[in-house]
Amino acid sequence: MIDARYLAFDAVVQARSFEAAARRLNLTQSAVSQRIKQLEAELGQVLLVRSKPVQPTPAGRRLLPYVAQLRLVEAEAARALAGDGHGAPVRLSVGVNADSLATWFLPAVQAVVAADALVLDCVVDDQDHTHALLASGEVLGCVSTRSDPMRGCVARALGTMRYLCVATPAFCRRHFPDGLTRAALARAPAIIYGRHDDMHDAFLQRHFGLAPGQYPHHVIPSSEGFCAMAEAGLGYGFVPQIQIARPLAEGALTRVAAGHHEDVALFWHHWQVQSPIMARLADAVVAGAGAVLAAR
User: Fold this and answer.
1) Contact at 8 Å (CB) between 94 and 122?
2) For the chain, how big is the Rg over CA atoms in Å?
3) What 3-state class would DSSP assign to 230?
4) Above 90 in pLDDT, residue 220?
5) Is 186 helix (H, G, I), strand (E, B) or coil?
6) What is the extent of the structural domain holding 56?
7) Is residue 205 part of a domain?
8) Under 8 Å between Cβ of 185 and 208
9) Domain assignment of residue 61, yes or no
10) How much is the pLDDT for 110?
11) What CATH code is carried by the domain that includes residue 58?
12) 124 in helix, strand or coil?
């Protein structure tokens, strides 16, 4: 079983207070505080800033990923001791970008999730930022654009997701009658995913000299909503090719910038030492992505 002191530390970080953590653990606040003091004394590091809300110190943040792994190992051990190979469902937290979640990720992992009786906690963020979720211990694996793993981790290539700039034919006739020009792009409503989405900014600045803020845009923080917005003729934007193959083939959408595309290389990051269940999930992610995404 996981050391009770680590459980107390994790509970305080999750609840952001000693009082709430004590209620969660069915202990007194004094008992929780004492366990954390013992852990800090053993490790020789202050792990928590006793503020409101309570925050982990830099040392505490470095400890969080290991505590997350301990929780998973404990859950797997409890299942193994149950004797039937099943027991209670095992919860896995993973970081994934919205476009992967809407396209290839769930088909890739569905067999493992069903066979191992897992419950997934998918934390969605931009693929350039999911790496921080792994570093903080919030997730045990993540889809990321970073090719370099952090210390103690492995980065496995998944393939390349290609993005095409698309809109409806009617939208193009209305806003780009003379093709893509700087003046037309400064007026036509674009679609972007959110504040971390810089693909559109980079495209317009690199090819047309339009800086961020010099063009109107919708903000649609949903991969499915993004596509629906484009298909409704309300804007143009970059969408994964695998997500819009059908509307492109049927003529509901057309490429705005013919011949231009943006390629995003994706990687699966996980800890070097993995539990058996996490290893199976990682293998499924890599195999599933490889069957759909373009090779790097």
Assistant:
1) yes
2) 23
3) helix
4) yes
5) coil
6) 1-70
7) yes
8) yes
9) yes
10) 96
11) 1.10.10.10
12) strand
Number of structural domains in the chain:
2
Residue 183 maps to which CATH number?
Answer: 3.40.190.10
Between 107 and 93, name the one with better pLDDT: 107
236-281 per-position pLDDT tens digit: 999 999 999 999 999 999 999 988 999 999 999 998 877 888 899 9
Distance between CA atoms of residues 283 and 261, nearest Å? 29
Last residue of a domain, one of 70, 92, 120: 70
- Residue finishing a domain among 32, 47, 70: 70
How far apart, in whole angstroms, are the C-alpha atoms of residue 182 and residue 79?
61
In a domain, 81, yes or no: no
Report pTM: 0.79
Q: Is 133 exposed, middle or buried (0-12, 13-18, 19+ CB in 10 A)?
A: buried
Instruction: Confirm whether 170 is domain-assigned.
Output: yes
pLDDT, averaged across the chain:
88
Q: Are 93 and 295 in contact (CB under 8 A)?
A: no
Question: How many residues are listed for the chain in this entry?
Answer: 296
Say if residues 225 and 161 touch (Cβ distance below 8 Å). no
Indicate left, alpha or beta for 159 from its phi (over 0: left) and psi (-120 to 50: alpha). Answer: left
